[in-house]
Specification:
The structure holds 2 protein chains of 2 kinds.
Chain A lengths: L14 H16 L6 H17 L7 H22 L8 H7 L3 H18 L5 H31 L4
Helix pairs in contact in A: 1-6, 2-3, 2-5, 2-6, 4-5, 4-6, 5-6
Chain B lengths: L9 H4 L1 H13 L2 E2 H8 L3 H13 L3 E6 L7 E6 L1 H17 L2
Antiparallel strand pairs in B: 1-3, 2-3
Classes of the chains: A mainly alpha, B alpha+beta.
């Protein structure tokens, strides 16, 4: 049920009640930071595509573009759906909110990309394994990062 | 973290505006519909509170036209608003037993 405007500034200060209602609203906001399983799966696949695309083979080049475009589109979709920018567009802020899982996912992404760049001309199966591990880690850590972000968003104001 | 001066802010203190400010302090820019749902208020009520906060210089509204369909309004605390909200929460916490 919708509540009506309470605009009475002359009401006495009840700090506990004020902090409690603020926290309840924060909890409702935090509960929105949740994505469907396919979002995390697609994000993992996008990271894997980027890793494969960086491997150096001419035929895999388009995968890099595909991965970048897919990641950008997913981030945009989630911003629209969740309605909270800190959960999405302010990327580094979201990494902090989702720590340590988001940090691990970021490390896995960077490590995967760096590996295939450093180890140029590796056999395709090795590139596939590296891309698979990076993508799987990103997909698996996504829900845990969301959960950490929800906890931090719902925490009392410092 | 920098020391926050506890200051009572009558604009922030109204219960629903306090909730709006708490959400914006945590969520960064928040979409109008998300704020409305989180507060369980009507569009008109939220608009009224946002108008008060905007006039006080605490929040700013950004209207983003979508390629198809309705425009969305994103609400965000201004730097002045961030200071006011932190100060008000410090004030409340100072009163809490």
């Amino acid at each position: 049920m919708e509540s009506h405007s309470h605009d009475d500034q002359s009401s006495p200060v009840d700090p506990l009640a004020a902090l409690r209602v603020s926290q309840q609203a924060q909890g409702r906001l935090a509960s929105r930071v949740r994505s469907p399983w396919w979002f995390h799966l697609l994000r993992g696949l996008s990271v894997a595509a980027m890793v494969v695309g960086l491997a150096g083979a001419p035929e895999t080049g388009p995968y890099l573009l595909l991965g970048v475009v897919a990641l950008a589109a997913l981030a945009r979709w989630r911003t629209r759906t969740v309605g909270v920018t800190r959960a999405n567009t302010e990327r580094w802020r979201f990494v902090a909110l989702g720590a340590p899982w988001s940090v691990l996912a970021l490390v896995a992404t960077v490590a995967g990309m760096a590996s295939v760049v450093v180890l140029r001309d590796e056999p395709a199966w090795q590139v596939a394994v590296i891309a698979g591990i990076a993508g799987a880690l990103v997909a698996a850590l996504g829900p845990a990062a969301d959960s950490a972000a929800r906890r931090r968003l719902a925490a009392p104001q410092a | 973290m920098a020391h926050v001066e506890p200051v009572f802010d009558p604009v922030v203190h109204a219960p629903q505006r306090l909730q709006i400010c708490a959400l914006l302090a945590r969520g960064g820019a928040v979409e109008f519909g998300v704020l409305r749902d989180a507060l369980a208020v009507s569009d008109a009520t939220l608009s009224k509170h946002l108008k008060t906060l905007t006039e006080a210089g605490h929040v700013e509204l950004r209207r983003v036209q979508r390629p198809r369909g309705q425009a969305r309004t994103w609400v965000e605390l201004t730097p002045t608003g961030v200071v006011a909200v932190r100060g008000h929460f410090a004030f409340l916490q100072g009163l809490a037993p």
